[in-house]
Amino acid sequence: MKVLVIGRGGREHAIVRQFARSASIEKVFAAPGNDGMRLESELVPIDEMDFPALAEFAKEQKIDCTFIGPEQPLAAGIVDFFKSQGLRAFGPSKAAAQIEGSKTFAKELMKKYQIPTAASETFSEISPAIEFIRQKGAPIVVKADGLAAGKGVVVAGSEEAAIAAVHDMLEDHKFGSSGSKVVIEEFLEGEEFSFMSFVYNGSIYPMVISQDHKRAYDGDRGPNTGGMGAYSPVPQISESIVEETFSKIVQPAVTAMAEEGIPFNGILYAGVIVTKEGPKVIEFNARFGDPETQVVLPRMKSDFGDFMYAMLEGKSFELEWQEQAVLGVVIAAEGYPEQPKKGKVLPNLAGLSGVDIFHSGTKATSEGFAANGGRVLFISSEGDSVKAAQEKVYAQINSLSWAGFMHRSDIGWRAMD
After folding, report:
1. C-alpha distances out from residue 389 to 194, 233, 379, Å
2. DSSP result, 269-337
3. Does the N terminus or the C terminus of the chain have fewer Cβ atoms within 10 A?
4. Is it the case that residue 232 has pLDDT exceeding 70?
5. Is the predicted pLDDT of residue 417 greater than 70, yes or no?
6. Per-residue pLDDT tens over the stretch 124-169
7. 147 CB-near residues (< 8 Å, 6+ apart)
């Protein structure tokens, strides 16, 4: 099979690598990809949002399946467009991608089908939003309704911080049209994890769970980011909680979408928190998480190409996963997430051993790879336990100088005894 992976980040590099390792895959293309993916794929200089050019390329190259990584093209209807051109693309339709593209849609769906989540209200005007915050008190969570690259969530420790977030979104349009409505919800306490599943024509193939670290600084402090590191498995989450999440959240969500007349195909990502009342949904995404993909896909023992083919053809397939833990750390440009400094050349990565390196925002220069985005690299390692993987990866990271870059030094700390 020939596959085309759409996107340019670390998540897409992990997808490309998994396909490249598959005996059943003849050729992997990445559009537009990044310079770090060149060894495993042929880069195609077409933007993720240029649907006609992407479809034309897929036809020319006789691509068997196009795998869409990021949320923006999914929300804009790339799968519908490919379908209209007689092409096979893996991901949700524009209508089904609303489960991520509109938090209001997701909340109403969960309310209607009794899927456990935080109590919330949606606002498009400032005064009633402030009144609601005053009434509920803090801590409280303010979310931009639309897509905001993982940064449109403010966990406010005070009413003033929540009110400032409302002004940022509704008045100053910090997230553009994504913040034209805000969802304000109760703050839930508990352990979080990411539960991702492959979904196709009603069949659900759950993946192993993972946990990412959203905050910029050690100890889960600082601003929310797209994610600073991740690990899998999550030993502090019991198997019974995972099973309950599948039966009370994942399966009902897939059923609900079908009953609404907008069946979900693609990657269904459930961000889950374990509360005293059991697991509840923090958010749904309509694609792989980043950086969770970089620790989950490497744990897949099955041939990825064989699995994708079987799933798309409606044939039964048993996904196999390895016991080994995987833990990885994001190397970000200094100033991330607010004002990342681009252009700084990375240290010589050839000095690292026993690690996997996924490129996110990098560009090849005559001096080596340089920062070309906020999150630059994801460096991971395997181990017999989360702690063993953590020790291995940090020993390698700490062997290099990272002037001009930043990373957390405590990824995986919640899994430590």
Report:
1. 19, 11, 11
2. EEEEEEETTEEEEEEEESS--TTTHHHHGGGB-S-HHHHHHHHHTT------B-S-EEEEEEEEETTTT
3. C
4. yes
5. no
6. 889 889 988 998 898 999 988 877 666 678 888 899 999 999 998 9
7. 71, 72, 75, 100, 101, 178
